[in-house]
Amino acid sequence: MATIKDTSKKTTYEKVEFLFKKENYLIIITGVVVLIIGYLLMSGGSQKPNEFKYDEIYSFRRITLAPIVVMIGYVIVMVGILKKPKE
C-alpha cells in the first residue's frame, strides 16, 4: 500500500531589503560614469608604436585633468557607499 505525502507547502515570502537605497545606487552609478570619463581622457595617443610625440603624451589632458577626474569619480563612489539613506 502506497502512502501519499502532503506536498502542499505554504511558502512565505519575506520582504528583501537591499543594502543600498535607490539614491545610493544613483550616486554610485554617477561615480562610475565619471571614472569612465576620466579613464577615457587618459587614453588615446599615437597609433604607431615607433612614434613618440612629447606634446601628445605629456599634455594637460592626460597629466593633470584625467587624474583629477578619476579621483573625483572615486570620491563620488565612496560617498555613494557611505551615505546613509533617508528612511
Q: Main traits of this protein?
A:
elongated, mainly alpha, 87 residues
Describe this structure in words.
By secondary structure, the chain is an all-alpha fold. It has one domain (22-82). Helices cover 55% and strands 0% of the residues. The chain is built from three helices and no strands. The protein has helices spanning 22-42, 54-57, 60-82.
Quick summary:
By secondary structure, the chain is an all-alpha fold. The chain contains three helices and no strands.
Provide the residue-averaged pLDDT: 85
Q: What pattern of helices and strands is seen along the backbone?
A: HHH
- How many independent structural domains? 1
Oligomer: single chain
Principal-axes shape call:
elongated
- Percent of residues in β-strands: under 5%
Number of beta strands? 0
Radius of gyration: 25 Å
Low-confidence stretches: none
How many separate helices?
Answer: 3
Structural class: mainly alpha
Fraction in helix:
55-70%
Question: Span from first to last CA?
Answer: 58 Å
- Outline the biggest β-sheet: none
Per-chain topology:
Blueprint: H1 22-42, H2 54-57, H3 60-82
Helix pairs in contact: 1-3
